Amino acid sequence: MTTRIVTVCNQKGGVGKTTTVAEVGATVAATGKRVLVIDGDEQGSLRRWVDQVGEDNTPFDIAILSDPAELGSVPEIAADYDLVFIDTPGSRYEQNLVAAYLEVSDFILVSSEVDGLSLEPADRYINELVVPTKKPYSVLLTKVDSRSPEQETAAREFFAEANQPVFKSAIHLFRAFPYAYQDGVFVSAGTSRRANARKAASEYHAAALELLSSIATL
Ligand SMILES: Nc1ncnc2c1ncn2[C@@H]1O[C@H](COP(=O)(O)OP(=O)(O)OP(=O)(O)O)[C@@H](O)[C@H]1O
Ligand SMILES: [Mg+2]
């Protein structure tokens, strides 16, 4: 398999970028593919999460990157893997760094919440940072409240109107995710004992499958 680099981004903080990289990365790695996850955010959340899970229980390799000067080494490091996921910072001050990550990517996944206030900034972000790269991309709807399904419907209508591709699968709000770090698990691995953890896992499994089929044709 040719190496594919997938970057998860959104200028907005707290929209599930790190969670998506870890859970999709763990899901894909569990299928036997060689996966490298790059923590490209100086906050280092992903690194700490992996430390908490333990490298032995982490099915992917992890590398740290926070200096665009090191980006030149990515294709070389990536060559040993089937898939590389890059987690990016959610601060508008670091968008030059994110733009550099996008340049080395084969596919871009924009995680977005579905509340009304999140939609326009996500659309603007995509048009300003993602579209100019001419790389294939899609939005992944995250932290969707199942008690307000109309929000997901409205978000899908908004992005359809804006001509932005959106994954069919979406990630709902599950308590298992904010506890994953302290529990030292990836929810997608199926070991979380939290309520609805199985359902939470299945949603990232579906998103990972959709991602794999999107990049299979590249
Ligand atoms: N589907 C979900 N359901 C419930 N909580 C979630 C979900 N996804 C993420 N979270 C929680 O929301 C918080 C922010 O998620 P995460 O760190 O993945 O976002 P981020 O976009 O990487 O944030 P930052 O911009 O700060 O890097 C975390 O506490 C995480 O556990
Ligand atoms: Mg993050």
Pick out its properties:
six-stranded parallel beta sheet, DNA_Partitioning_ATPase, Rossmann fold, plasmid, binds magnesium ion, alpha/beta
Walkthrough of the structure:
- This is CobQ/CobB/MinD/ParA nucleotide binding domain-containing protein.
- The chain contains 8 helices and 6 strands; from the N terminus they run βαβαβαβαβαβααα.
- The chain has 218 residues and is α/β, with parallel strands linked by helices.
- It has a single domain (4-216), classed as Rossmann fold.
- The protein has a 6-stranded parallel β-sheet, with helices on both faces.
- The longest helix has 20 residues, at 197-216.
- The N and C termini lie close together (12 Å).
- The model has no long low-confidence stretch (mean pLDDT 95).
- The structure holds adenosine-5'-triphosphate and magnesium ion (MG).
- Adenosine-5'-triphosphate is lined by residues 13-19, 41, 43, 45, 90, 142-143, 171, 173-174, 177-178.
- The site of adenosine-5'-triphosphate has 18 residues, from helix 1 and helix 7.
